Amino acid sequence: MTLDLEHTYGLRLLAKPRVQRLVLGAVATAVLLLRLGQFVYWTGQPQWAYDFSFYWTAASNLLHGLPIYSAQQLAGPYAPQAQQGFLYPPAMAALLVPFAALPIDFHALNWLWSGLGAAVLVWAVLALARVERLDERFELLRGRGRWWLVVAAVAFPPVIDELVVGNVHLFLVGLLVAAWIGIRRADSRGDAMAGIAIGAATIVKIFPGLLVLWFLLTRRWRAAAWSIVAVVGLAVLSLPVTGLQPWLDYPTVLANLSLTPDAVDALAPTFWLAPYLGFTIARLVVTVAGLAILAYVVLGRRSDDRIGFSTTIALSVLMTPALYTSYLTVLVVPLILGLSAGIGLGWLGLSYLLLWGGQQDALGDWSWVVRRALPTLGALLLLGLLVAEQDHRSVEGEIGAR
Fold it and tell me: Is residue 267 within 8 Å of residue 323, measured between CB atoms?
């Protein structure tokens, strides 16, 4: 028995697009007001500018000729949290030198940093909706309807977390979208644009570098070459500011990264497996599994670039051994591309809601279910949806070949 909204008393109104927009608008307004309240509250808490403080401190150290990596990081295994060193490539610290040179406290500077990140997010979402022509497939997104996607992005709790702590993932979203626009061009200029964007993202944080492998697997040789050129070029340009020693130290910093002593916020599959396999073995298992999934999706029949690109982004996030809530901001890109590729809105919506997570201290010892398990499950569900879509296309390809 099916429910016909057009002929059901009361519920019939929900079949009308105008009523649907009104309902959606009311829900969106309530959620955005909630997010605004949360953001305002967190600006007065210790979490405000927490991550940005490390960038600012590293840049300030460069200005004063001090090391950006701590002795603890270079001496042996260390946790990504509860230590005062810098976790990212030296070029990232060099990029923040203009901020550190200002006579302003990093707490105040985080308003500027977060504002720039928010502007990048709005541009990225609207640009992605435009290049994917989502308005042609979804009536709700026509005209100014693309702003519904912006509302969904701003309502995404990892985005609020990102704005509060002042990390770099909103800027990574912008670079990933710029790369996708370049890929869509499918010409030499587009390859250069895509490669430079991914190279810049890699020099900011290592994990987007997995997309260079995607370039190679999809035979985008020029884009891969431009990525390498961008990484090397940005590193060389940063040398007058950073000096050589931080670049020599950074491989040791990466190699010594170990298990966090407090996994209350850790989402990485590596951290879930580490208590049973040990950190090194868990990291190896996750890496091998991720590479195998990437090869399966990219090299399969009827491979769709939207699926391959999105899968690589999702894998790059899940494979990083230091995965926290703000990292999930990057998944805005595969969520939108998954919608464009034809993945069911209901399933994508479920993944989106699971990724919300949150802190529920009232659950006591079970708070980890909401805080860690649900966001991890949401990310894995998104990955599974992308792989399943590629598998479906592969089956269709085999049937067509027969």
Answer: yes
pLDDT at position 401: 47
**Residue 323: φ, ψ to 5°:** -110, 120
CB-based contact 379:345 (threshold 8 Å)? no
| Dist CA 338 CA 284 (whole Å) | 28
The residues spanned by each domain of the chain are: 1-42, 43-401
Number of C-beta neighbours around residue 385 at 10 A: 24
* Alpha-carbon Rg for the chain in angstroms: 22
Pairwise CA distance, residues 294 & 283, whole Å = 16
pLDDT of residue 3: 47
Residue 393 has pLDDT above 90, yes or no: no
Q: How far apart are CA 265 and CA 278, in angstroms?
A: 19
Q: What is the DSSP letter of 338?
A: H
Cα distance between residue 181 and residue 176, in whole Å: 9
Task: Give 257's DSSP letter.
Answer: B
Instruction: Give pLDDT, residue 383.
Output: 95
Q: Residue 380 pLDDT more than 90?
A: yes
Please provide residue 257's backbone torsions phi and psi, each rounded to the nearest 5 degrees: -60, 130
DSSP label at 134?
Answer: G
Q: For the packed helices 106-131 and 50-63, what is the interaxial angle rounded to 10 degrees?
A: 110
Cβ atoms of 328 and 355 closer than 8 Å: yes
**C-beta separation of 173 from 332 below 8 A:** yes
CA-to-CA distance for 323 and 383, rounded, in angstroms? 15
Model confidence at 5: pLDDT above 50: no
pLDDT-wise least confident of 71-80, 85-94, 203-212, 337-346: 71-80
